[in-house]
DUF5673 domain-containing protein
Amino acid sequence: MDKANIVSIIVGIVFFIGIIDQIKLLKDTVVFAKKSMSEIVVSILGYVIIIAITVIYGNSMYYYMLGIIGGIIIPLMTIKTGISSKGINFISRGKGFAAWDKLKDVRVYLKDDINIKFVANGYDGDLRFEYKEYDKIMKLLLDNLSKSDIKVIK
């Protein structure tokens, strides 16, 4: 086994751990965020590009497995966005999860959709939800955050 295959295996293991983490967040999500068309398009394009690069340049089973695992992560990151019983899932270059105790300055904007803006771990987040989810969202926020951290803006 050469050095490139060993590196591929290590990267594959890291990606696989990332997939498991994303699936755990997905399973715990109570209210899913509304996806914009650009999020959907970028997710699909990212998946297609990774698979295309894998098919064109992959020259061993290790590269094909790495490409498939890498391709799975992108749609999972998009799908899992929302509010869970443990915090807020969002798209980020890092973990993409903010536990309730890390959330500060949560603003809920009520218009056609519900837009939630928050600050957590030095990240300014923004998620949109369908208005029909209002009761679930507010229950989760009020059960897990102090009223002083939540501002509802109509």
Remarks:
- The longest strand covers residues 103-110.
